[in-house]
Task: structure prediction
Amino acid sequence: MPDWITHIAVAYTLCALLGLKYKQFNTPNTVLVMIGAVIPDLVKVGMIFDYLGSGVWEYIWPLHLPIGSLIITTIMALLFKEKKSAFLFLLLGMVTHFGLDLLLENVGGGIILFYPFYWGGWQLNLVATDDYHITIISLVLALLAYLVSRRWGKNKQLNDLST
Ligand SMILES: [Zn+2]
Result:
């Protein structure tokens, strides 16, 4: 699992770039995508319970499966007025999460993407789990995306004013 920072940075970068073309990727929706990007890692609350001395992994590990995350995403989307759009943005974030996780060498044998239909794990073995270069790269890319989107937004405002 790349850390939360990487997941959030990648989700942000994606939205900032998509925002250059599609106005739907505004700040509130970008935040939804960023939240969606960490939903699968809610499973990490298990560490807090470990610390407190009670194991809950058996109950919560399905959160880090697409099916478990999908259920959480759906429940979260129900809290919003625009349920369908909230769901889609959260879902996009969730997809980026599993996309990133797939790049990893998972000691556990990969992500069981198609549970309960298929129990095999998937992974691309491109990045070691403890490789922090990916975090740094993702932060640099997020910063660049931020600068580009700001610049673009300013130019667009000027264009809108002059027409
Ligand atoms: Zn993960």
